[in-house]
Specification:
The chain is of the alpha+beta class. It is built from 10 helices and 10 strands. It is globular, with a radius of gyration of 20 Å.
Amino acid sequence: MTPDAEAIAAEALRRFVAEALMSRGVPRTDAAKVSALMVEADLYGYGTHGVFRLRQYLARLRDGGYNASPVLSVVKETSATALIDGDNGLGHLAMSAARDLAIDKARKVGIGWVGVRRGNHAGPLALYVRPQAEAGMLGMAAAVGSANHVPPYGGSDLLLGTNPIAVSAPVDGPDPFVFDMATTVAAMGKIKTLIQRGEPMPEGWMVGKDGQPLTDPSRASEGFLLPIGGPKGFGLSVVIGLFAGVLNGAAFGSDVVDFTADTTSETNTGQFVMALDPAAFGLGDGFAKRAAAVFAEMRASLPLPGHDPVRLPGDGKAAVAEAQRRDGLTLNPSLQRDLNALATDCGLVAPFTAA
């Protein structure tokens, strides 16, 4: 990023994204919800899953792959569980509804688990677990990836996605614990940003069909993403597929639609969100205090030679978000150019002047 790169105020970016979505038929209220979550992803540093994804969403809205005006519904419900049908709308709508319902159920009965079917790509899962931690609860969310880039361990057919999972917990201090990861060595979003920037991939992210390292991100379709930990990552990805896909009546395996390559078909993406109240275990605020004490021990661990001090997942995110709310977001120049191009496509004023 160049030192003189143009910054944009978070509110201005939210407004632009909302207007772009509305230009494709998304109602104003829904566009405001989705744009706020997309920009929040960038504020907290999840740039591969924030406004970078706008081009993909607009393409699917244009071509009929998304329902611009979905009517969400709860199709199954108990005191602690529910299943939401996202009506093939923008994924952020169903996932934020699932998150809020899970939190509400946890407040009432100690735990809430809400599945989603007929959803879509919804940005980083951190968006759907951080609020639980901020409310003093533990959170978890997972999703079947929006395209298959991974074969079963030892196989060669693409039957698994990046299948991400996120977990959060309350901690005394400025940052809750927020752990958000793909079950592959790298998320596909990181590879897409490298393509946009014209940069190579590190070895170890992908291999070609000949089993040799693949470092050209523009050739990603010619190879496989690698699971974390070999067969262990494969197994975890399958678990997520069972809980987020099969359990919800959503896509898993060969049923998964590549939402970038195919902009006309419904994806039936499956996800789930969980909220757990420590008070149900007699802890209440004691959980956050105990977690803070344990994390302080970990951070105090003497670093190995050549290593930075120990950090916990989520450390520093609040400060990053606050700084960007104050000073504006400085997006990658290639992303700025892409957003300006999308503005032209949508008949809007370009958000950046120097891109």
